[in-house]
Amino acid sequence: xxxxxxxxxxxxxxxxxxxxxxxxxxxxxxxxxxxxxxxxxxxxxxxxxxxxxxxxxxxxxxxxxxxxxxxxxxxxxxxxxxxxxxxxxxxxxxxxxxxxxxxxxxxxxxxxxxxxxxxxxxxxxxxxxxxxxxxxxxxxxxxxxxxxxxxxxxxxxxxxxxxxxxxxxxxxxxxxxxxxxxxxxxxxxxxxxxxxxxxxxxxxxxxxxxxxxxxxxxxxxxxxxxxxxxxxxxxxxxxxxxxxxxxxxxxxxxxxxxxxxxxxxxxxxxxxxxxxxxxxxxxxxxxxxxxxxxxxxxxxxxxxxxxxxxxxxxxxxxxxxxxxxxxxxxxxxxxxxxxxxxxxxxxxxxxxxxxxxxxxxxxxxxxxxxxxxxxxxxxxxxxxxxxxxxxxxxxxxxxxxxxxxxxxxxxxxxxxxxxxxxxxxxxxxxxxxxxxxxxxxxxxxxxxxxxxxxxxxxxxxxxxxxxxxxxxxxxxxxxxxxxxxxxxxxxxxxxxxxxxxxxxxxxxxxxxxxxxxxxxxxxxxxxxxxxxxxxxxxxxxxxxxxxx
RNA sequence: UGUCCCAUAGUAUAAAGGUAGUACGACAGAUUUUGAUUCUGUUUGUCGAGGUUCGAAUCCUCGUGGGACAACCA
Length: 548
Prior knowledge:
The chain is α/β, with parallel strands linked by helices. Helices cover 24% and strands 24% of the residues. The protein has a 7-stranded mixed sheet with strand order 10-23-24-25-21-22-11. A 7-stranded mixed sheet has the order 19-16-17-18-12-15-20, with no helix packed on it. Helix 2 (40-55) crosses helix 11, helix 7 (213-220) packs across helix 8 (235-245) and helix 11 (300-310) packs across helix 12. It catalyses: tRNA(Gln) + L-glutamine + ATP = L-glutaminyl-tRNA(Gln) + AMP + diphosphate.
């Protein structure tokens, strides 16, 4: 059965353009500003832009929109390139808006010559005041009707550094009474005596987004310039520049940006979390950045699958984080080797087991591949999870309790005989009897138990640090709450367990290596992990249908 | 109180005037040496009112609700 997947609205546009012969092939671009790390919302855009090109045999440029030197940095350029590659995409050309500064300057001159741009000496406040409001028209000022010659001279002097920051701007001469605010003589160039990460000190004037983005698209012959909804009002300007500059007509299409529950997606807020120390950095696994998901143990394909499932449309959305979690679980379930780890250990002593004996028991690494096995050492003293024992069990309790029987995964069925508590009432030791005939794969005991728990031999287990991550916020949409979004940070978003135990062969696991810790979830080796001081991050829990 | 964009189960996303479907979630059951996985089933939807039409989620009008727009940011 070949069920045809329906097209999203951008694919429909592309197919129509291709079908009509408007283009022979498409060219898209991914245009990040190098002033922050990429997040999952960017992944949606990356998958859309690169995915479209792949699907329709076109190409995609990676273009850094680096027209504001004061906020941009090569650190971000490098991280962005790394993340795009990691997601599995290859760009046709690595480009920078700053590559076009000369060309952009000439285009600006062209507009001045056509009488469609002028130098304005007004202060920022004055310009803002004269701009009007969405409901009131703006007004024209005294600089608007300077002669072409004067504008040409002034603009050149701006370029040559004759003026200080903010003294003058170049504006397009469109319509101060336009209903669309963006058409009220938008600023094209501003003066910034700032060092640029690529052009150095060559320029002291820099183009604004609207006089750089569309022109860069046009220079590259981008056919479909895809951006998010907040640029809808810019489209009129985008087209105006193209028409009046008489350059290649790239077309802009807008889709709804990704929002996800229990996180924030704006760079501004993400930067605050980093700068104010709420997280350890851009790749803190609680962040929604690509680098954080990577560190947390997500795979590129799980993120691509997610982006495919959420679709592309024009309505505002708030995607349930559980969909992303589903995507990574689905993938890791198939490939992550199973291993046992005890996070909150309590000692279990098998009273009828010889203290000098050790058995190497066979355990499967993947449930669907019984031939793929390892051995696990079993002995008299074991670590089990504190949570797997209840002195007074709740109803439907399948695990350990006084008198109750459970199976130790890949080992024996045991019966709990007694337990010891300390002065604070904490259970410190549990005693049990094992059933020799119930050995895994050789069970002749005829006993059926409901519960299976994991364990580790005390003298064989390796100590490790395990970091458990929960959602960073306590509310679905922190950005929409009243007041500071940081008031809704989850105080329990990170739990560090320094004294967990794992199977000994995990000492040799390398950074990024992924496992399923049975009954806990998926984990991977953190980049801070060192031999002898292993650190594991929880990628995602297993689904848990048990409710107390 | 201007212009623009948008409105389909809890969340997303299909149905180009002709059976409202899919995924995730939730719930229930079966299987299970992971309370996982797998399998089965259930649940819940076209914002409202008019109109056009044999027939409207789809087209039109008017409401209602949400979002965007007044950075020398992108």
